[in-house]
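INFO batch 0412 | record 1 of 1 | parsing
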Amino acid sequence: ELSRKRKELPVLEQIEITDVAAEGNALTRVNDMVVFVPFGAPGDIVDIQLTKKKKNYAEGRITHLHQPGAIRIEPRCSHFTVCGGCRWQHLPYEFQLECKQRQVKDAIDRIAKVDAPEVSPIIGSEDIWGYRNKMEYTFSGAFDKVLDIESCHLQDDFGNRLRRFIRDFGKEHGYTFYDLRQQQGLLRTLMIRIASTGEIMAVMVFGEDDAEKINTLLSAVKERFPEITSLLYVINTKVNDTIGDQEVITFSGSDYIEEKMESLRFRIGPKSFYQTNSRQAYRLYSVVRDFAGLTGDELVYDLYTGTGTIANFVASKASKVIGIEYVPEAIADAKINSEVNGIDNTVFFAGDMKDVLTDEFIAEHGRPNV
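INFO prediction complete | emitting tokens
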């Protein structure tokens, strides 16, 4: 774009938002063109600055709210619309569930064109605040790139206290905050996991290997927050933030936390996947188990088993469960979780579904009942 100025896109005035769309956007139609806007509510009368215009759809942002729709509620979080974490805080939870229900039905009827039975009503979450067991935060030297969050309402308030402590400690002691452009800085990312058992894991990722400063910070964290049962850290000097291929070092406590579900215990390591809402995970698995209608004689296949949580959860009601999953670390977790729970009728295989699940495989292990 050397000299060509981007064509200024128009502002649409006094437009009524008519519906919600996927990805947490709202939408309206203007002269046969669908316009997607974040943070709108049906019934809102707004001005929209278009930011992108294609042949049959456009995207924009609300620049002025003339009149709020009747359904709109006051968002709880002071960072709403600036932080990318939540999209629907301005809509009542019951309405959010209706929208999600509609999206599922729409995907089946209109997109997949599958003749499906009636979709059962969504089972909502009893807790709509403080329910997440895992949050990840980024530290940055470029304060225009990262939002300075005081309180996030998605996880127990402990997460806020820990994050603010590390931020303030870093500022007071002259620690550098990671700069994405320069690829340097000490404080990089923080992951906090709070299990339903009350166990807490904190994983601090550093962008530089400064043993003295790392030790000073983590000692302060340990002293200030004795309730952390698993305090871990990573030194990540790579370009990207993922720690999947990095060594995780235990500073104090255990190298995993445990989730409980009925009589089962699930070990969660720093790289393990677990449903982010522990109570809803239990409800989800219970529904799966009910739908499976197991009597104790069945051979069950759990495809894309992840860390084997569903496989282990239904194992006591089946004769044998076979789990298949692409990620080898997840399969390692699945086997450990069978072991620590004394489950001996599960078998797990790591590999791509198309390579593992062959006719030979079924000939060897049997055709599944479920």
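INFO post-check: The mean pLDDT is 94.
INFO record closed
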